[in-house]
Amino acid sequence: MCSETATAGGLPGSVKEWEVLLKQLCFSTLRPAGDWFKAKDCLLFDRWPAAVTAPKPDHKVALALMRQLVNMRAGETVTIEKLTTAGIGAEIATIGVENALKASMAAPINGVTIDSNTQLELLKAFKSPLGPNQENFKMFAPAGAQKLTSDIDTATGGINSEIGVALFNTKFREEMKTKWEPATVFDYNVYASD
Question: Of 3, 137, 154, 160, which sits most exposed with the smallest number of CB within 10 A?
Fold first, then answer.
């Protein structure tokens, strides 16, 4: 999560001493959700819930912890973006196969059923490469700042941006071992193109 020592980041002692607190703030079950907004409340405004049992830092240290959390958000979301980009082709193929199979098993519509040749063509269409001017999914540079109070908004593009956003959220939950979306945990919002 953070570096071994935090003297360079403005924190006294080892960051491991503060990791328990950061995890309680962002990933805990102390509240209905571990979240970025509660972390900001605690670290920036000194509004701590009674359920946080870890030692609470003084305000200067709390600001340094928030900076560390902002840096962690940047690093973790870059990792999730790479995993999403690497996995988008397989995800699209999987969805294409699932849709083709669902269509082939569906009851005839207006007396028309999908024959095996059409099923095969549907499967090939989802596995074939895109044309030279098409792109499956692309995440654009995040809009927002590395400020302690800023959220991050990331737009996406490509013909499968909605699939990419869903995959990003899934990868986030898997990698961060949480049931919460990145918008809740890190105030990091990913949007599909229209």
Answer: 3
Gap between the terminal Cα atoms of the chain: 35
Beta carbons within 8 Å of 36's beta carbon, 6+ residues apart? 26, 73, 184, 185, 186, 187
pLDDT at 132: 44
Report the run of H or E that residue 191 belongs to, with start and end.
strand 188-191
The beta-carbon contacts of 45-52 under 8 Å, at least 24 apart in sequence, are 52/21, 52/24, 52/25
The domain locations on the chain are 7-72
Element (H, E) at 127: helix 116-127
pLDDT tens readout for residues 1-22: 333 333 434 455 555 666 666 6
DSSP-derived secondary structure letter, 108? P
What's the chain's length in residues? Answer: 194
Dihedral-angle region of residue 193 (phi above 0 means left; psi in -120 to 50 means alpha; beta otherwise): beta
Helix axes 36-45, 16-27, angle to 10 degrees: 130
